[in-house]
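$ run holo --ligand "LH6CIYWY" --emit tokens
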Amino acid sequence: MLHSNLLRLVARGSSSRLMSTATKLTTVEVNDETGIATLTMNRPPVNSQNVQLLLDLQASISEIENNKSRGLILTSAHSNVFSAGLDIFEMYNTDVERLRTVWTELQNVWIALYGTSLPTAAAINGHAPAGGCLLATACEYRVMRPNFLIGLNEAQLGIIAPKWLMSGFTNVLPKRVAERALTQGRMFTTQEAFEAGLVDEIASSKEEAVEKCAAFIGSFAKVNPLARGLTKLQFRADNIKEFEKIREKDVADFAALASSPEVQKVMGTYLENLKNKGKK
Ligand SMILES: CC/C=C\C/C=C\C/C=C\CC/C=C/CC(=O)SCCNC(=O)CCNC(=O)[C@H](O)C(C)(C)COP(=O)(O)OP(=O)(O)OC[C@H]1O[C@@H](n2cnc3c(N)ncnc32)[C@H](O)[C@@H]1OP(=O)(O)O
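-- output --
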């Protein structure tokens, strides 16, 4: 008997398969013609990254690597948010062990996406603050819909993001632009992100964004995949090695910082503001 969580193939038109993973907050759909997998985050309303979404993302990335897809496109099921970053509710009023788990799983997703040899692209169909920007900049290519915001806003919140979390961002922007944006905690509009090089293309719809991502991945069709993947990883090796050296200390540092009364207070105020914004 086929277990419902096991590669349940559901016909979706003539040329794509929805591969049900052992997860609920992400889906993986493989286009039979191109062999490219679309990984969709689906945790309403804003894809805030709780532990379950982070685990599901890891499982989906592994699935895509194992099913020999030609590339991975990361996107969101929601109409105006790619991902709101870490789930602040999950980090508020909780114990240190939970905070350690949150951070460990964020690290695990980042390294899985940043360190995959597969071609990767993000179809950014909505806002992508903080952890949302982290996922987008872990990919090799970004296409974004107009009139949304993307960036690492940690400095605005009085928080220092670790170097690994900034490394995708610093890979794609000139050092001077990255330093200024990170010290300002700047959120870029789509147009500003395009002009700075933080996103590669602008698309007027999610479908067009996915198509442009697929065209980017298709540009490697005639390149030997092993040579391509190893070349990519050579570019990323220094950041990956540096991250591996500090990953455990980084978890301890995050748990200590996030559990401190000062940061808990910042989170509480931030959450109040988010809730009140909804009432206005
Ligand atoms: C504040 C963080 C503090 C401390 C972190 C602790 C230690 C850190 C040390 C170093 C680490 C640094 C790294 C951090 C990585 C992160 O990712 S932190 C998360 C930062 N994220 C944000 O700042 C985004 C906040 N959200 C928004 O700006 C907007 O919601 C967004 C532009 C994404 C969408 O806007 P809109 O469509 O108008 O939706 P609403 O704002 O109305 O939101 C809808 C509901 O979703 C809830 N929500 C939004 N974001 C989050 C979130 N990140 N976590 C949990 N929940 C979120 C919001 O409350 C609304 O809920 P409601 O409908 O009112 O119930």
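-- notes --
DSSP finds ten helices and eleven strands in the chain.
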